[in-house]
Structures are given as structure tokens and as C-alpha cells.
Amino acid sequence: MAIAKAERLMNLALCLLGTRRPLSKRELRDSIEAYVEASRPGRGGAARPDHGAAGSDDSFNRMFERDKDDLRELGLVIETVESLDGEIGYLARRDSNRLPPITLDAEEAAALGLAAKVWQQARLAGAASGALQKLRAAGLPEDVDPYEAHGALEPRIPVHEAAFEPLMLACRDRRPVVFDYRKATAAHPEPRHVEPWALECWRGHWYLAGFDRDRGAERVFRLSRITGKVRSRGAGFTAPVPDVVTVRETVASWAGETADRSALIRLRTGAGYPLRARATAVRELGDGWDELEIPYGHGLDAWLVEFGPDVVVLEPAELRADVVDRLRAVAKG
User: Measured between alpha carbons, how far is 154 from 53 in angstroms, rounded to an integer?
Assistant: First the structure.
């Protein structure tokens, strides 16, 4: 049924765009096969044996009015014109439905090329390449190579999580979702009912920001901790979507980026480069270990657990205890 309607709308749009004069309902009905079918007595569910012709006309009129409204909602400008003899006709002038020409300078073209290149290893590769081709056809300078100016750059956004695509579509369509989520401190996943707002990549991991219905507050979820399938729900959002969703800032605060203290850890030589990049002091201990002083804030324990046996927390004592508790929870799971 969805395919049939889409085909019917496309045919109606082509008729309205292709005509040089207004077309009456009768002319449109005779030109589009779906309308011809709906106008036959007994079709469309509106006709009864004693009202065949009238019922078929009513069925066509309702279908046509719905289709016309749908096309206008999609952005097609349809004009209604009354002829000298009082007959109503419809047409969609090309000038009213043509987008302005797209003009891009070299820097804008390069930025678009890099954006398309970023997604070449992700699920959006086809869409990104198709968008770039359409922009070329619509006015992207032919003498500008979007990749050449920054040929040394090889941007990549890896997307390995199966939850990425359904969550991306749910964010776009504003559809609530349900998925099973395993926290770093939990042995087993728990169901979450979320109104998704935005997806963002931070330090090589994808995160979803949204409204957690069960907790009644904003939450951020790491996609690699989502287990099973992401299931959509038909109901709309119950909470307002903020104008700005600060995914990175939220995750950064949880990871200790907004720290006002210092922690002392022991790190295996050759491991934990993200920790070394944040270290304010590094001292070689020998025997394959180094001692690092790093900023300490909320959520640092969860980040340190990810490095497993390569990290040993020396101080403060509360951070060491939190990391040990998390490791024990993981071992039990």
C-alpha cells in the first residue's frame, strides 16, 4: 500500500509539473491509472450496488484531495486556477518549484568532500557519495577536486555497532526506542525506554543522548554497551528536545575531563596512550611500568576499568576502591 501511494503521488506530481495549462480533476483522473481504478464502480470501498457511479466519484475525490494535500505538505507548490467557464484546474509551475542554483567556492567544496570521505567506512557511505554527486550536478565547481586540497588527511568515523543505524533513523524521525543496556558496573543488561535526541562520536566511541523515560531525566548511552536489537515505538516524544544537545561535554565530565584533583596510577609500558596524553607528569619505574599523574574527576573510575590489567590505581583511596568494585562486578558477570 505504501509503494502504491508513493507511485500515485509521483504520477500526480509529474502530471502537474509537466502541463502548460491547468488540468481539471476529470483530466487528472483519466491520466493516472490509480485514479482510473478508483473511479470504477465497486472500487475503493465506497460504492454500493445502488450507488456505483456516485460512490466511485466520491472515492476518487477523497483520494485526490488527500494526495494534493500530501504533495503540498512535501513542498510542492500547486496552484488552483478557475477558467472562464468556471471549471477548476490545477498545475505546479516549474519556476515556483525549482530550487535556486547552488554555488560553492573551493573551500566549501573541499569541506563537503572531506565530510563525504569521513563516512566511506560507515553505513552512510552510499548516501554521502550520492549527495556529493547531486551537489556536483547542481553546481559544484567542476575544476575543484574536494579531496585534492586535503589529500594528506584521511578522516574516518568507524561505525561497528549494529545499534547505530536504527538509532540514527530514530533521532531523525523523532521516534522513541527500547533497547537493553549494560552499565559498566552491572553484571546484566537492563531495558531502557529512551527518546533519542542526538548521536555523537567522542574518543573513538559513539554515544546517544536522549530522555530516559524510566528515570525521567536526560541520559547518555554508549552504543557499544547496547545489547540485542533496538526496537522502535510508535508513540511520540513526551519531553521537549533541547535546542543544543551537549553529548561530548556530558561524556567528558563523566570521564573526568572536568577534573579539579589529581590521581596517581601505575601504567604498563607501551599501553594506555589516551591516559598518557592526559598525564601531567610521567615517571619511569622500570620492570615494564610507569607512574602517571592524571586529572581526577567524576567518572574516571569507569574509564580506567576499560584498560583492565594495564592500570593500577595508587591514590586516592576512594578512586582505587571504585575501580576495584567495578572490576569485581565485571568478573562476576
Answer: 66
